[in-house]
Design brief:
Layout (H helix, E strand, L loop, with lengths): L4 E5 L4 E5 L2 E6 L3 E5 L8 E4 L1 E4 L7 E2 L6 E7 L9 E8 L12 E3 L8 E7 H4 L7 E8 L4 E8 L1 E2 L4
Parallel strand pairs: 5-13, 7-14
Antiparallel strand pairs: 1-4, 2-3, 6-8, 8-11, 9-12, 10-11, 12-13
């Protein structure tokens, strides 16, 4: 089993309007409790992910033998080049990527390169009542935990 991270947070966000939109610049009352020794404290940076890029509903059949693509999206204030790929986990079972390396493409046509990963569907830990899946990772410097979530629709087995 990999390290399990329990994230407890009450977020107070301070938003400012820049010329390109709202930007989150501060958090309060954040804590991370790691399962693998070393313990608490740290910074969490929310990131955007897109499960099944190109499909808004994100339908997933939990017993499917295939993989689920997940994109970590770059933004004007975040580059996927800062993600430590070896620390990426997805879903309640902390599934790890299938491939040894991610691939990079602009999945949302914003002109920025995104990181695309694939996870074995059966390893993610999707249950009938699951409505959202989250991805966690660390930055290359190990200081910041990245957290992104996206909604899904569970498709029952025929």
């Amino acid at each position: 089993m990999g390290d399990r991270v329990k994230i407890i947070f009450v977020i107070t966000a301070i938003l400012i309007f820049s010329g390109i939109g709202f930007e989150q610049i501060a958090f309060s009352q954040l804590s991370i409790h790691g399962g693998g020794g070393g313990g608490g404290g740290g910074l969490i940076r929310p990131i955007e992910i897109d499960i099944k890029p190109g499909n808004e509903l994100n339908p997933i059949q939990p017993t499917n033998m295939g993989v689920v693509p997940v994109a970590i999206l770059s933004s004007i204030t975040f580059s996927v080049s800062t993600v430590d790929f070896s620390t990426v986990t997805f879903g309640p079972n902390d599934a790890t990527p299938v491939h040894k390396m991610p691939h990079f493409e602009d999945v949302n046509n914003d002109g920025l390169v995104d990181m695309v990963l694939h996870f074995k569907t059966k390893e993610i830990g999707i249950e009938e009542q699951t409505i959202q899946l989250c991805l966690t990772a660390k930055t290359l410097d190990g200081i910041v935990t990245l957290l992104g979530c996206d909604s899904i629709v569970v498709v029952p087995k025929n």
